[in-house]
Amino acid sequence: MARDHDLYDLIVLGVGGVGSAALYAAARRGWRVLGIEQFGVAHDRGSSHGQTRIIRAAYYEHPNYVPLAKSAFGEWARIEREAGERLFRAAGLLQVGKRDSELMEGVRRSAREHGLNVDALTAAEIEARWPYFQVTDEYSGLFEPGAGYLRVEQCVAHLTKLAKKAGAELLTNTTVERWLPLDSGAIEVRTSDDEVIRTRRLVVTAGPWSQNFTNSMQLDLQVVRKQQQWFQMDRHEIHEANGGCCFLFDTPQGCFYGFPQIDHLGMKVAEHSGGQATEAAEALKRGIDASDLERCQSFVNEWFRCGKIRLVHHSVCMYTMSPDQHFVIDRWPGLHNVAFAAGLSGHGFKFVPVLGKHLVELVDGQENSEFDFLKLNRFERQSDGTSV
Ligand SMILES: Cc1cc2nc3c(=O)[nH]c(=O)nc-3n(C[C@H](O)[C@H](O)[C@H](O)COP(=O)(O)OP(=O)(O)OC[C@H]3O[C@@H](n4cnc5c(N)ncnc54)[C@H](O)[C@@H]3O)c2cc1C
Q1: Could you tell me the residue range of the domain that residue 108 belongs to?
Q2: Which pTM does this prediction carry?
Q3: Among 12, 13, 34, 48, which residue has the most ligand 1 atoms within 8 Å of its CB, making it the best to mutate?
């Protein structure tokens, strides 16, 4: 069955984090745009759920992300104004590690190269400011006061709502089975309802389902199960209202992060490192995994002064890891009117407004050298010994 009102300017395949932002960016341009999402809006089965996401600018992964992070802060502020709701809270982010660790060197380098406000703290200074942390002298901290967290589900819901307000159409509970370029240059998209829809341009933002479409690309993506848990503890200082901050600790056992308590659920803690690879996003185990829980409990017991902790909630999510843990954002090989974002490697949410906008620019023929380091062809270069 073909839609009679033919030819959209753009179809967005997958309306999760990045897809909702792309939908909004295209609708703001006045494009006739359709988003197709296999579940509902702001659902809990992909990579964009679980209450909160850290947003930070002093990027330890690579200083090239800093200009994108700066733009993201501005974009979120604009989206908040348009949505009429607070989505970002500047709770600050404390990063703790050994002085010469990759994490600490990386944060310092980004802060230095981009003139970012980051405070260096000794273990004693950390404990004096946040008495619930327990840090030995061989560790130190870097505190980014302007960092904080985003309310992840509300962000996706508002981006989708704003896109619809600006004229975007949305098909939910509809899976894109396949898409193909036509001789005319248009793209044909076939859905699970056997509907055939044509569009001038396509943006593929399928998150952990990306491999269903990127198989021809020789892009090795690995989907990893991630468990987030919320703990109650007897320390009122961990509440955001009492000065509790976001945190990221690089420990010998792994890299753990968390958020201040923001509501009745308690403090959210999760492990950034590791995770179990899962063959297919559909096969994800959603029950609590005892060994993941135990790792996070051990982290809290070692690095917090908080007495007994009680698990009150958990949620399971997915990272889609690229081979070098940097995003892959580019035009589809051989097609000027198709672009994709994949392999956000567990750190993409903060950037979704800038990624969505960039994808729309790409299918509109525009270039932006700030994103060059995220292009697909770096993997060819890497086989020659160069890297991002
Ligand atoms: C536990 C956890 C903690 C994280 N913490 C942070 C953090 O603190 N800071 C940060 O910046 N990032 C963080 N991230 C990473 C960030 O959340 C992700 O990088 C980002 O949300 C990914 O967005 P996405 O649009 O790629 O994927 P998704 O939001 O999953 O969107 C993909 C969408 O495509 C849809 N879809 C797929 N295939 C089809 C199809 N065939 N037809 C129709 N629809 C389809 C899916 O249903 C889904 O809605 C975290 C991730 C996890 C899992």
Answers
A1: 93-145+222-321
A2: 0.96
A3: 48
